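Pair request: fold both.
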Amino acid sequence: MIQTVLAWMRLLRLPNHATAVADVLAGFLIVSRTPFGEWPADSLWLVIGASLCFYGGGMILNDVFDYRLDCVERPERPLPSGLISVALAGSVATVLLAAGLLLSIATAVFVQSPTPAIVGTSLLIAIVAYDFQLKQTSVGPIAMGICRSLNWLLGMSAVGSQERIEQWIAPLGMGIYVAGITWYSRREAGESRPKVLAGAAAVMFMGLVLAGSFPWISIQLGQAGWLVGDRQTSWYLLWSILVTAILARAVFGIADPTQARIRAAVSNAILSIITLDAVLVLAASGESWAIVVLLLLAPAFSLSRTLSMT
């Protein structure tokens, strides 16, 4: 029984789910600017549920379509090892993805705007397209980046009001960052080439630079949020430190492209999504909400000690 539960947790990539919640929460807070202490709108909880369903369904579907490859390259995974049947996994993935879509539609009804339903439908299509066909092609990393950007937009759409154009910079930058991570990790089960890894790290850097420009552009448009006075310099310094720490691990993998190094760099980059989201929330909504987002590191880090994130 315990072995089966652990197998499902591995199949779902459970530590990663905290990053999906962080994205939705960050998107919601950046648009809503909800004062700390005020209970967020119920629509937030609907899109968090939708995001978790989409993420879980996508992770399972990924392994269903990768079953034959994993039997050769990753026989220890839940499906090739026989701990979970492929048919059951496919059924659970279908239910989760359908639940994600229904929750997105429910959010649209709740906020009286079609946007959450449109974003949810787009995310469902992107997930299935990536898992079924695109991940083995050159556009696979782009498709994964689109999924991450749409997850951010799901949180933004739950506010029910018109987002400002500069607020799209954060999800776009984070999507490019995740595209870089996906490209970096593509050969983690085999031999990785330093030039390919360097290119992927460069894409990660470009995404982080773009996401980090969101506060600066907001300030230029008179939407400083928390960033008043000397706080701007402190925020940029904090963002720069985070970017350096993430890319340093990626550089270690480029210098020594072993499976262990690559997986360590990828796991670090994925976990860092929560911290990056928290710092973006800091710029818009202040320390208290940033700490709330940062607290998602606790379950993510704890679970990552025993469950693989890749």
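--- second member of the pair ---
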Amino acid sequence: MRIAFAAAEVAPYAKVGGLADVAGSLPQALAALGHEVSVHLPLHRSIDRARFGIPDDGPSRSVPYGRARSRVSYPAIDREGVRTVFVRSDRRIGRDTVYGPVEVDAKRYGLFSRAVAEDLAASDRRPDVVHAHDWHSALLVSMVAGPYRRTLRGSATVFTIHNLAYQGKTSAEVLDLVGLPRRRVAVESRGELNPMARAIAAADVVSTVSDRYAREILTKEFGEGLEGLLARRRDDLYGIVNGIDVELFDPATDRHIAARYTAGDQSGKAACKAALQRELHLAVGERTPLFGVIGRLVEQKGIDILTPAAPEILATGAQVVVLGTGHPAYEATWRELAARFGGKLSLTLSFDAALAQRIYAGADLFLMPSRFEPCGLGQLISLRYGTIPVARAVGGLADTVRDAAADPRRGNGFSFREYTAAALVGAARRALAAYRHEAPWAALRERAMREDHSWAASATRYVEMYEAARASKRAA
């Protein structure tokens, strides 16, 4: 198949969150299966053109935009079997950051979607599948279903929801700018545009990033106001768990960590732990349990229950390492905790990719107490490094973390259901009790490390979904 991706962020060129990892790794996995894959993303000003060998210019065209037209160019590079096309409009699309205020992003990503549609329609190798990701490229689905339905009549559309909480709601005036009709979908208020809702309504197939989350978003608790619309698409809704880049995240070859190790020879993990403790000014102790936390300090990630739970976890004699940024009020609270628990709690209020890898390698346990979690990559990476996750049984965490107490033979972590600090502390205590038994813990760690969370299996499921989208398109 010929498959065309569109996304706001794509690793390694521009990365803010997990979307970039998916849009960067899945195309390569599909190319490895023999498919012809292209990826369109905006040429953000933050992208290092020299580092990646991105040309200053490429083919260009005049793209309709409101009552005027906007000149857009398409410089492109080929990497590992995937053609990456950078959509360049310094005036209207390019910004210093990937994301900004919604009212600004709605216009720039609206033009991005129109520019992608123009590029695909002009190609002599039009795609069999157009795959748009999250609200930023959602209007591309509406383009293929609307003004480009003739020129792209053979292209099926797939829309993937990475986080339903962010829908891009804005003024319907954006529709006039990008040439789409104002006819509302049921969930839109008068004068409102909801790009995500429109893509859900128009796509041949809708997907999200775990099977559990695909079921959860049909409920009022997780549906973010779109549960009714999603329920009408139930038969066309797929859930496929993300993979990870197993070459980047590999303790046997990782150049960022103190010592290399494998599932069969875990001796290097102790060296990684000691090096991490020294680096972050924690007391060095091989048998002192060390919890890692990597992620945004926001309520989606469970910071509101982790904050009161942290002193109780530290009271057990454990250490906690936190890396991330978030809401200023939580940052301030965690600064106070770090000052109070000096030598036991390390706090780094930034994002440092190399330090993140050292935490994955050096920690014994990994905390993910999310309120909701479409998929989650942290638990998959921690498993790869033999760092046992303690996670809430929600979304993709429920699909990938199996409680070792409930299933001793297949378990790979510890989980809890209630969204409370007490439930989190209870799961952490069960994990610590298991940690004290060295031989069973080493076996648990080996089992976790041997699991396959590569993109290979997920990519095969995506191909099956693409075939379903094409069948749906033919039937329509």
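Observation on the second member. Residues 38 and 83 are 5 Å apart (CA to CA).
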